[in-house]
Amino acid sequence: MTQKIGKSGLTKILVLVLALALAGVASIDFYTHRHTKETVVAAEGLTEMRMLSEWVPSLKGTFGDTPVFFYDSGVEGATVLYVGGTHPYEPAASLSAYVLLENVKVEKGRMIIIPQANRSGTTTGMLGNAYPTWYEVETDWGTAKFKNGDRWANPLDSWPDPFTYVHYPSNVQLTYQDIRNVNRCYPGREDGMLIERVCYGIMEIIRSENVDMAIDAHEAAVMYPVVETYVAHDRALDMAMMASMSLSADRFYMKCEASPKNLRGLSHREWGDFSDTLAVLMETPQPFTDWIVGPMTPTLQTEGKDEFLNTAAEHGLTYVAYNDEFGSPIRYRVGRHLSGALEVINWMMTMDPTKQIEVSWPTYEELMDKDCGYFLHNPETADPALVFEI
Ligand SMILES: [Zn+2]
């Protein structure tokens, strides 16, 4: 006996075919985002590129493993660690680390750079948010594309989340997804979940390489109080305070806050408590992560111009000065990070004569003048030994 497919049955089949077609198209995007890498050209002074799995072997072969770049001048001096990509949806942090590692010169002491602390978080977008997957930076050799990642590690790499995340070793209870947040899992543990192991590895670098100052680069919403700010551990607070005053005097406005003692898992607290390093976190204004903005486009990420945020600023609802004529371009945010790091390093040297390092890289003024692409090198014509896929 045969049965005819009725009109409603046909509609169901068509809807199913359409849903599968849309899922097929989307899956190509998801796959591409997960497996495409970003290309960087390290500066000539590179002495070593090591993987984080050297410090935590269980990370080998996982999306938690990430490159660590060493620039050793060979002259005895202080060691500074610069960390980008803690939150991959704050791209000026990792882009500033790229500009740094492509242009750094070290005459005395040593620089260590981790451009993508949460590599797993670069392999997915903000889940539930229709963010563009990419943003673009113009260079004189073409357009360089970089990823907008997530705040947390990809659930494909770290799953399931606990019902409540109990931070180790404080036992403070945090929201469940923060078990995948690099800035909630320090000091980490060697046999923990993926990001706890990543954090343990970064801690181990700080301890075993005797890092004198460790800097964690971030971006924050313009309507979030902790923006345009250093957040410093107790021992680094005077240095960050002086740096904020000197930057604010004649270059760009920068606040300074003390790392709260009861807020656990964060770099500016645990790096300083679980090692001898001077821990400092930096935030730039990133309109892309403000909830009230209009279309979430790649241009909003790079130019930061938004009329709704402008209206909010006119009503005194933003924590920093903002207007949509200037916006908050990525060259401004990268420049702030690069000079923010140089300034706090200078104050470390002024306040502690035993910690001396001679480093240079592009400054805020140079970024504002020439933009980010000027400082990114063409991987096609570069020495292949200096080209890395991250
Ligand atoms: Zn952040």
Question: How would you characterize the overall build of this protein?
Answer:
This protein is α/β, with parallel strands linked by helices and 390 residues long. It has a single domain, classed as Aminopeptidase. It contains 9 helices and 16 strands. It has helices at 7-35, 91-103, 194-208, 237-250, 267-273, 298-303, 307-314, 330-351, 364-370; strands at 39-41, 48-51, 67-72, 79-83, 105-108, 110-114, 134-139, 142-147, 165-166, 173-174, 213-220, 229-232, 255-258, 278-285, 358-360, 387-389. The chain has an 8-stranded mixed sheet with strand order 2-3-6-4-11-14-12-13, sandwiched between helices. A two-stranded antiparallel ribbon has the order 1-16. Helix 4 links the parallel strand 12 (229-232) and strand 13 (255-258). Helix 2 (91-103) crosses helix 8, helix 4 (237-250) packs across helix 8 and helix 8 (330-351) runs antiparallel to helix 9. It is globular, with a radius of gyration of 22 Å. It starts with 6 loop residues before the first helix and ends with a strand. The mean pLDDT is 96. The chain binds zinc ion (ZN). Zinc ion binds at residues 86-87, 90, 218.
